[in-house]
Amino acid sequence: MKILITVAVAMFGLSPLAPAQDGPVSPGSATVARPRPKPGANTPAAGAPATTDSGQSQIPSKLSPKATKDNDPGSEVTFRADTSVVTVDVAVVDPDGRPIPNIPRANFRILEDKVPQTVSQFSVGEAPMTVAMVVEFSARFQSYYSSGWGQTLNAAYGFAQTLKPDDYLAIIAYDLKSEILSDFTNDRRKTQEALGMLRIPGFSESNMFDALVDTAERMQKIEGRKAILLIASGLDTFSRLTYDKTRRRLQDAGVPVYSLSILQVERMMAESSGALGAEQNLDFLQADNELKTFAKETGGQAYFPRFQQEVPGIFQAVSQSLRNQYSLGFSSNNQAKDGKFRKLTVQLVNPANNEPLKIMQNGKAIKYTVIAKAGYTAPRSVE
Fold first, then answer.
1. With a threshold of 0.85, does the pTM exceed it?
2. Does residue 150 sit in the same domain as residue 101?
3. Which ranges of the chain would DSSP assign to H, the alpha helix?
């Protein structure tokens, strides 16, 4: 009986212990600054920063040397016609999700709209991460002391504990709107303070699409290994953006999304007991598909743990995938500045015969997965 009550609480947001709140509010800045500013960078000048559609400043805002120079009233506006290099971060993992190292440059092939490209840049090695943890925290699924509340906090705290000293992390929570609880920082005390705000949720809405796009677009110009870790049910109830528009804008931003679904076991239990109707079940199946799609099209991965014991292994896989990526660069054969979306396919081939590469482990060929973003948007002539 206690388990069924918990499921009902998680599914319908019923919580006699949760008083009306406005949800977690960040006491600090409402903008997320670019991590790791270069030594000697100038202090940002006063004034209104460039904004996204949501009205918040873009990353890297004015903390980068380039942005500071561009905003200098005395600087001249110049236009350059450089050949742009498209960068693609690639992870190759085995069936257990572990990265496969030491793959030579010659084995990578990139296709843009099915046309082979020449890989001009190649690097590999472990590198620090810059991660934005985007956490659903609404009264619908994370009511105080519900199962969803516990799973969300365990996942958020658990991932923070896997970080290394050089990793940067920002915490963003969303319900009716998104709130930046902490800026990108490698100060773990600030991260703990931000996570401490996740106690009593406020609104019952879940604007996942808006929160994801806003975060991805503000992270777009961050350099190095970057990603969004989305901890959510996958349901969106009130976003301004549609699903299709969200897909396109996430693809344009080029920030990998790693999705961690919550309430998988509770959903199965509710469905088997008849507490979850056919329409609700269809909504959750659609939510799972959206989490998978966002991850696949941005070069991330989606995870659907049924037991809490699976979560540490997931975080380890995410960390290894990000730290041990292959970074490929190419100059597109298509130099048209038409602003169109171009599909990318990354393959591993044997350069001797152009056939798919066989990777052997313990004397046996294994099935591997190549993880990369689905494409990019070409620049326009006016940019």
1. no
2. no
3. 2-12, 65-70, 147-161, 188-195, 208-218, 243-253, 264-273, 278-298, 311-323
